[in-house]
Amino acid sequence: MELVHTVEGFRKALDGERCAGRTIGLVPTMGALHDGHLSLVRRAVQECDAVATTIFVNPLQFAPGEDLDRYPRDLERDRSLAEAAGSRYLFAPSEREIYPREPLARVTAAAIEDSLEATSRPGHLDGVATVVTKLFALAGPCRAYFGEKDYQQLAVVRGLVIDLSFPVEVVACPTVRAPDGLALSSRNAYLTDAERRAAPVLYRALSAGEACIESGERDPTTVSRVMRDFVGTEPSVRVDYAEARPGDQEWRLFVAAWVGTTRLIDNIAVPVGAGPLGAGPVRS
Ligand code: PAF
Question: Which of 110, 158, 173, 237 has its CA 20 to 30 A from that of 152?
C-alpha cells in the first residue's frame, strides 16, 4: 500500500490507475479505523480494481467546543488496518494540504438545513459537503463508499453528486454493529466502561420504535415518543433527538444521544411497504 500525503501525489496516483484501465474505489474517512470503515474498504476491494482510503480529520465539520482536538488519531494503526483490508492507497494529507488558505468557496447542504444533525450541529453537514467535494474533485471518476450510520451525510453526498455533476457512483453500505447492537463509531473510543455498557440503549430504542411500527403503529409522533422514552430509561444517557420519518416503502428511525460527554448517533430502516402490516395508510 502506498501512503500519499500530497494532493498532487493523490491525483497523479489515481489518474495513473485510470490510464491503466483500472477502476477506482474511494473510501473517505477521518481515521481511527474500525470494522465499519474496514467493511467499506473490503466492499470497495471486491467491486473496484484499486482502492484509495482517505484519512483527514476535517476541521470544517466540527463546531467550536466539539471534539476536533481529542478526535482519535493513529496513522500507523490505520495504515496497517487499511493495508490488511486491501487498500492500494492511503491518502493522509495535512490540514494545510487540503485547506492551503481560508476557503473562499464552500459548499452548503441547503435542502436538509433544518432537521436532525443539521439542527443539532449547525454547519456540520456543510463542512462535510465541502471536504467531500474536494475529495471527489481530487479522486476523479470513481465509486465512493459511505456508511448508512451517518444517514444524513449519505443524503448530502448523494445530493452533491447530482447537483455538482461529479462522475462518482455513491455506494451506501450497512451499519456495522457490536454484538450488543452498538453501531461502530470512532467516537466509541471515548466511552468509559460504564458508558460503553449504557450506550447500546440507542439501538435498543430504535428497536423499540421498530417493534411499535411492526405492531401497526403509524403515527410518527407516537413512534418518536416511544424511542425517546426508551432512551430515558438509561439514566446516564441524555437524548438529543429521537425521530421517526415515515416513507411509503420504509420508515427511517433516528436517534442521537449524549453518553457522558460523547454524542452518538444511530438509525435504522423499518420496511412498511410489503405484507399485511405495511398495507395500511400512514397517519401523521
Ligand atoms: O464520515 C466521515 O468520516 C466524515 O464525515 C467524512 C465523510 C470522511 C468527511 O470528513
Answer: 237
